[in-house]
Amino acid sequence: MPDTQLDAILRLEQRLERKIAHANAGIGLESTPIPGMDTRERIFTDAEAIAEDKVGQIRRLADSEAAVLDELDRDDAYSGEQFREELRQALLSDAGTDLERLPWGIGSGHDRGDEPAVVFLISAGTKHFFRTASLCSADSAIGSDLLASLKMARCNPATPREYPDSLREAVYDAWKRVRYSTFAWLQEQRDPARRQGPLPRAQRQAIDLLERGNSEEAAHAAEILSVRWPSDIEGDLREILREPESSDAERVIRLVEYVGQRGLRPQTVEEIPNVQEGDIKLICYQVSLPEHYKLPEQVSV
């Protein structure tokens, strides 16, 4: 086999190993498609880590109940692929031009929702975010799931407008909560330690040793290891650091070689806008009400 083909196959195997390692660390695997790779069982029992409404579905899947797959299909009917196709069709028509002409802060509503809520599209610096808020309670959490937001806002040109004037104050109050919540979230995300959590001890020790390695290769390896990696990498680093017959200089060489052999690369960290609360702007919003919704005498927000 030509060397170029062999190199390509080896690089592909390394990429597959990294992806499998991430999955193994995150959710656990019973087996892997690459012989010799370790697997682990992960049992999720923390109710705070899994949404309560999904726990039952996960247990039913574990019990091989086929009916739950149909339920999941219905729940996920509005997929990313479907949205992209709808967006493509809209851009091919005149809808894109019409939308660009709309003023910021514009809003509407429909009665195709499950509960009284509102979807906001907001701008913060160069970034755009979707956020959802309940119109029934000021204590409910602000939603940030993209597909859930799109599903809630979804309608077509023939959908009748349903946005009672009596809800406008509640929508405005919801917008204030969303703007503050988004501002607080952005401030938290600008702290690298909060974004990725503390690094495992073995990684911290490896970084410290590499930074004292006095070479460009060691500094590059330290940069790569400065973000969280799957636990199997942590285990490998621990073994290198504990080699009894190795000096620090030899451990630095081994760490640099290990980073290269595993094909680890610097991870791009998404830029987080540095904005004040007043810099977060409302682009548009959509009120979502249940069908035949009757307004209470006073909306509690």
Helix coverage percent: 40-55%
Sheet having the most strands: 4 strands, mixed
Strand content: 5-15%
The SS-based structural class is alpha+beta
What is the 3D form?
elongated
**Total count of domains:** 3
Strand order of the largest sheet: 1-4-2-3
What does the average pLDDT come to? 78
Which radius of gyration do the C-alpha atoms yield?
25 Å
Number of strands: 4
Number of helices: 12
Order of helix and strand elements from N to C terminus: HHHHHEEEHHHHHHHE
Secondary-structure topology with pairs:
Blueprint: H1 3-26, H2 52-62, H3 67-75, H4 80-92, H5 95-100, E1 106-113, E2 117-124, E3 127-134, H6 146-153, H7 168-189, H8 192-196, H9 201-211, H10 216-224, H11 231-241, H12 248-261, E4 280-290
Parallel strand pairs: 1-4
Antiparallel strand pairs: 2-3, 2-4
